Amino acid sequence: MQAEWNHDSDSIRHGLIAMLPRLKRFADVLIGERREGTALLSRALKRMLAEQHRYQRGTPLDRWAFAEIYRLWLHELRDHADPMRQAKPLDASFERLFAMDQAEEFDGLTASFLGHLPPQQRSTLLLVYGEGLDHEDAGRVLDSTPETVAARLIRASAGLADRLGAGAQVPASATIETLYPKGSKEQHDRAQ
Amino acid sequence: MTELSDELLVAYVDGQLARDQTRAVEKVLKQDDVIARRVAALREAHGRLEAAFEAILASEVSEVTAEAGLAATPDTRLRQSEPNRSGLAKAGLATAGIVVALLVAAAGYGWPLVVPELGLLRSRPAPVQPAEVTAPSWQSDAARAQSLLGRASLEVSLESQANRDLIAFQLAEAIGPDMKLPDLAPQGFSFVRAQLLQYQRKLLAQMLYLPATGDPVALYARAGEGETPPVFKTETGIGTVSWSEDGIAYLLAGRQDEAVLLRLAEKIRHEPKVPEPKVPSMPTASIPVAPLPAEAVKPSAGEAAAPVAPSAPDETSPREAPAPTGPN
After folding, report:
1. CB within 8 Å: A120 and B328
2. Cβ contact, residue pair B323, A77, below 8 Å
3. Which CA distances in Å does B33 have to A161, B41, B46?
């Protein structure tokens, strides 16, 4: 039994180390700044390694680690003297999260857009568009419902599309056309 | 015309719709240009977000891999902790060793060279080499400034520099039709001269202005994209304001304080675009183009502000603690 436990402990350690860049990206994006993000990840890793008995077998390790980082961030935030202060990472701080050797491809507009989003919205975008999590898993990590996750994605995507300037606004007087073939809408509603 | 909500269109772009809904949206897209353009914009937004997160991951991989190297060579790590590192490398390396130290201490291992995934990491962008991050001296900063200059940079015809319209026209031709050559005389900064530098095979315009007293300010411009608001930051003791407009990326740099530079930037942003030249025909002489060595430093807004004097490292920037803002 002891041997098996040690094996699991080693697996968790190795697993966390192997996914270090992804965890660091999550912490950095959540905070919006590299220095504090690294410090948050360090504290979270320490806690994960000290309390790995809380890890439930079968849970994907990356989701558990993301959730631990997020919980720690939230916990520390609640102890803050002014927890309702908006997160406003400086543009320059957020831009430093991007690859240094790809400056020619650096997308300043998107970086600035992300940097000005609330942390939860930024993290939601990262988990779904960066990590490929579905809405349910992203919601579990961020302690939110899948509906909240979807709402954040819609708001952010529409906001960026508007900023790109290519967003075509549909006039309010536009004709409304149902997506459902005639008669199927009622069936769809009944099925809900 | 059809009205489809962003809610539905984002779900469509993200592949979250059921098959029959997807077909219905696609049918609408074929018939409605407005909706099609909106979907295209949402797709571009989606693509940009994915690319941005990929770029951040690439940066993290570089940093973590570099840390792995640093952990293996303590002497190198010590050198890199010295002050006066420059630019992004400095910011990235400011945290070097924290994660490594934690993992080594907590896990009781050396760096996980045996972890298979690290092989994958090492095949990603190369770690920062010690030569790139050793503390710069005044000699290296001066050499970097020199790299922006060439013989042609100094061969400026006084006649052409005196003809501001001609200069403006030539800059617009080189950088882009919406390029500005602002008149800052009302703000007390007289236009002195302009020149074209080259940076990574792209032309970089430099316009120099001199106040009645004190140091000059320089306005740099190169072809860019998008619209971004002015952002102030300090790079090795030089204040900079960077922004983009009309397909041109600008950087205003000088030793003036933040308020002065931001005020000048606002003035430039409201400056009309370059007018057509008043000269009937263009002379053959052009603004000098100074070639940039291939080993030029990596681009960042502040680095375009060279030459600069070495100064204390701009290690940190004040950050407001993030706060939960609800489910938005």
Report:
1. yes
2. yes
3. 16, 12, 20
CA distance A99 to chain B (A): 4
Confidence of residue B236 (pLDDT cuts 50, 70, 90): low
Range of the domain at B273: 147-305
Residue from A36, A97, A121, A126 to probe the interface with B (highest B Cβ count within 10 Å): A97
pTM, whole model, 2 decimals?
A: 0.49
Q: Tell me, what's the pLDDT at A88?
A: 58
Taking phi first (over 0 means left), then psi (-120 to 50 degrees means alpha), and beta for anything else, what does residue B277 get?
beta
Cβ contact B49–A110 (<8 Å) = yes
Least Cα separation, residue A188 to chain B (angstroms): 11
Q: Nearest CB to A151: which of B54, B115, B328?
A: B328
Element (H, E) at B240: strand B238-245
Both B162 and B245 in one domain: the answer is yes
Task: Report ipTM (2 d.p.).
Answer: 0.80
- Count of domains observed in chain A: 1
Residue B209, strand partner residues: B191, B217
Decide if A66 is inside a domain. Answer: yes
**Of B68 and B215, the one with more pLDDT:** B215
Range with lowest mean pLDDT among B58-67, B89-98, B312-321: B312-321
